[in-house]
TrEMBL record:
Superkingdom of origin: Bacteria
Organism of derivation: Actinocrispum wychmicini
Domain EAL: 24-279
This protein's name: PAS domain S-box-containing protein/diguanylate cyclase (GGDEF)-like protein
Length: 279
């Protein structure tokens, strides 16, 4: 009857919930172990200047080298890392490794001396009272100038920033570190924080870029975001550029930089220079 069915449903739900909780505990403990074993790995995706087609930066993206399953993407572990607080030590590792890697490439002459790097910051990291000090340490350990680094934050994190966090962000900006809004257009829609916060970069979310050529409303949105960025003196970066038509439209619209599979997937090594161009 209905009662039995209801009970079964509950049991199934309860089982699933228990399995998920066990799963999360297992993931958290494997993240702790991965930190000890040094199994977080960075991949780097080129960010290209639209006018010249040259790489001007890389975005540093974390992966987890799992002994059984190979390289895992952030979607497999970032949420658990965030909820457990492990994102803080993982994030510090990412910052330090991103700076170290850029400095190594520059020293080896495999990238230009002006190439920069960007790192994603989670909500937990952004609210750490020693954020600015952690970033300053990562830079000085690698002997990198602060302008070599950009930090990417989401709209939600920026909207929720309290006075103490804002002070940290301002300190970073005063040091010369760039702050960017990641996935712009997908979070809260209030724009007042653009005026309030020391951001210098807007990254147009790839969901809008995906429809840029085929969907008139996506094209209007991308156009508006680029104009807004220009009006406020910000650098605009389009994410998720996958074909030449998107690239061409973005250049016509006056977008500054682009990132996406067309220009290069995230890889372990330095960005390739287009053929015929010397470093
Ligand atoms: P994100 O910061 O927006 O990074 C861009 C994501 O889009 C990357 O996925 C990248 O591989 C993917 N992507 C780049 N170009 C294209 C394209 O042309 N088409 C498509 N379909 N995808 C493209 P990834 O590496 O899996 O990272 C996913 C998200 O995980 C990142 O999104 C970021 O929010 C988060 N993440 C990555 N590394 C870190 C980290 O070190 N710390 C924190 N807190 N979050 C990170
Ligand atoms: Mg990002
Ligand atoms: Mg993004
Ligand atoms: Mg995105």
């Amino acid at each position: 009857g209905a009662k039995t069915q209801g009970k079964n449903r509950w049991e199934i739900y309860d089982e699933t919930r228990r399995a998920r909780a066990v799963d999360r505990v297992a993931i958290a403990s494997s993240l702790r172990q991965a930190l000890r074993d040094d199994r977080f790995v960075l991949h780097f995706q080129p960010v290209v200047e639209l006018e010249t087609g040259l790489p001007v930066a890389v975005e540093s993206l974390v992966r987890l080298d799992d002994p059984g399953r190979g390289l895992l993407p952030p979607s497999a572990f970032i949420q658990v890392a965030e909820d457990s607080g492990l994102i803080v030590p993982i994030g510090t590792y990412v910052l330090e490794q991103a700076c170290r890697q850029l400095a190594e490439w520059r020293a080896a002459g495999v990238v230009t001396q002006s190439l920069r790097t960007s790192v994603n910051l989670s909500a937990r990291q952004a609210t750490q009272p020693d954020l600015a000090r952690t970033v300053a340490r990562a830079l000085s350990q690698a002997n990198l100038e602060p302008t070599a680094l950009a930090l990417e934050l989401t709209e939600t994190v920026l909207m929720e920033a309290d006075t103490a966090t804002l002070r940290q962000l301002e300190e970073l900006r005063e040091m010369g570190v760039d702050l960017g809004i990641d996935d712009f257009g997908t979070g809260y829609s209030s724009l007042s924080y653009l005026k309030r916060l020391p951001v210098s970069i807007i990254k147009v979310d790839r969901s809008f870029v995906a429809g840029l050529v085929t969907d008139p409303s996506d094209r209007e949105i991308v156009t508006a975001v680029i104009r807004l960025g220009q009006a406020l003196g910000l650098t605009t970066i389009a994410e998720g550029v996958e074909d030449v038509a998107q690239f061409t439209v973005l250049r016509e619209l006056g977008c500054d930089q682009a990132q996406g599979y067309l220009l290069g997937r995230p890889v372990a090594g330095p960005p390739a220079l287009p053929s015929g161009v010397a470093g």
